[in-house]
Amino acid sequence: MMRYIILYLYFFLTLFFAPVWGKYRNITVVSTDPSIQYAGGNWSTCNTNIASSYDGTRNCSIAVGSTATFTFTGVAIYYIAPLIANVTTVLTLDSGSPVLVNLTETPGQNTNWAVRWGASGLSNGPHTLVDYGPSKTITPSGTAGEVNALIYTVVEQDVNVAAIAGGAVAGVVALALMGVCWFFGQDWLRHLVCLFKLS
Questions:
Q1: CA 116 to CA 133: how far, in whole Å?
Q2: pLDDT at position 198 over 50
Q3: φ, ψ for residue 38 (rounded to 5)?
Q4: What is the pTM of this model?
């Protein structure tokens, strides 16, 4: 009998202290979303290869020092853009090393929008992605700011976890009371505990 009680207690405690289950959700942000902060230059709607752009819109800048900054909370980020003739853009994530993203179109290649760069496995917290226009300190010559769309991944807690945890706690308490009743046999403490359990 005691062996089964111990096994049940182990099961419920393991369930209760197991890591919180999570599910992932992707959120898409387009170039016109106000969460993207444009600064330092003349950002305007692009007129090149718009038909191949996600959502039919894209912002560009060839002004020196221009930036487009997006801050998000999540575990992954993906940069979306079409291919454009002779264009390279530069990204940094969390002030890391600059990454050159080649968007140059080659003959016969599908120019439609696609994920051109991404970073996954990030810590679940705030992150900042910056897209740069031409700059002497950040980007080489011949680059441009190109913002079409971004996808970032958030972690959401499973709504069933709270109910499972509550059930586990109730099960642990009930089994603990049963164990005390069994352990103390017929003495006064057994009666006291059992009366408390049944009240």
A1: 17
A2: no
A3: -95, 135
A4: 0.70
> Do the beta carbons of residue 101 and residue 88 sit within 8 Å?
yes
pLDDT in tens, 43-89: 999 988 889 999 999 999 999 999 999 999 999 999 999 999 889 99
Amino acid at 166: G
Considering Cα of 78, then 80, then 83, then 84, what sign does the dihedral take?
Answer: negative
> Whose CA is closest to 89, among 132, 51, 46?
132
Q: How many residues does the chain have?
A: 199
- Give yes or no for a contact between 75 and 153, defined as CB atoms under 8 angstroms apart: yes
Q: Are 73 and 154 in contact (CB under 8 A)?
A: yes
The answer to whether residues 38 and 59 touch, using CB atoms and an 8 Å cutoff, is yes
Residues ≥6 apart with Cβ < 8 Å to 79: 91, 101, 115, 116, 117, 118, 129, 131, 150
Using only the alpha carbons of the chain, give its radius of gyration: 29
Task: Give helix 2-17 / helix 160-183 axis angle, nearest 10°.
Answer: 160
**Rounded distance, CA 69 to CA 19, Å?**
34
The span from the CA of 199 to the CA of 191, in Å, is: 12
Task: Report whether 60 contacts 50 (CB < 8 A).
Answer: no
Give CA–CA dist 15/45, Å, rounded: 53
Task: Say which residue the tokens 């996600």 belong to.
Answer: 54
